[in-house]
Amino acid sequence: MLTARSLFQEILEDDASYRLFCSIAAGGEAQGGWENGRIAALVPERFRALAPKIARHGADEDKHGRIFLALLRKRGLEPVEVPPETDYTMLLERRGIGLPHDKLRRDEPLTERDVITYLAHSRVTEQRAAEQMRLLAAHFGDHPEIGRAIRMICHDETNHLAYCHEELLRLAAAGHGPAIRSVLRESALAETEVHRDVGLAVMGRMGRILGWPRAKSAALTAGIHGLHVAERLGGWRRMVSLRMPERRNALGGGGPYDARV
């Protein structure tokens, strides 16, 4: 029976597919680390109290990238170049979601709207990351090779999502609700399409590496398309709702800031 567990088990047991999986994951985490580091450095003065939290977010992402590289080294493998069609972060940027990298490379302070865009975009992408890591932790949290890493990353992603909820709620209470809702909706709808496209690209490459029969590849393709349809029909709304998290001040650091319009 084709399940998420059996699928990942197959990827895990083959060096070539495992190498691709860890390389894609490491590349995405490292990119996220760089982005958050630059945002922390450029956050406007009135939001400076947010900088330590953003920096912590970036440090966690860097750590995750190093963890995936360490998992490769543990098996005696080197990372491979990430295929562009599987680069989730860059595909989102090309859709105009999040803050463009050319802006982050400049030494110019970000605007209030930029901060809202960053947090709303992060709320959407961290929802996806948290869900994926919870799934992996449920099936492989006790795995002798990857279990500890999966549990650690899952914990961090839950913290990142909690932080985004808390900061967006603070901004919404200060009068930024309409802008936040607009960016959340735009980000969520674009993310579901990018997630579908990346999923198809990754599964296509895994299928070639592992020699999947046409029927198996077709079933996975249909499943990815089916998930996308469900998300377009309303599943995306889970990515835009805001609620106060159980984990308050999940990333620590930073005092109050002036969030008023």
Could you describe the 3D structure shown?
This protein has 261 residues and is an all-alpha fold. It has eight helices and no strands. The protein has helices at residues 4-13, 15-42, 51-74, 88-94, 101-105, 112-140, 147-210, 214-232. The longest helix is centred in the last third of the chain and has 64 residues, at 147-210. The model has no long low-confidence stretch (mean pLDDT 94).
Name the features.
single chain, 261 residues, mainly alpha, 8 helices, 71% helix
Count the helices. How many? Answer: 8
Poorly predicted ranges:
none
Q: Secondary-structure element order, as H and E? A: HHHHHHHH
Strand percent estimate: under 5%
DSSP strand count: 0
Q: What is the overall pLDDT average?
A: 94
Multimerization status: single chain
Which value, in Å, is the CA radius of gyration? Answer: 19 Å
Biggest β-sheet description: none
Distance between the termini: 54 Å
Which geometry do the CA atoms define?
A: globular
Residues in helix, %? over 70%
Overall structural class, as computed from helix and strand content, comes to mainly alpha
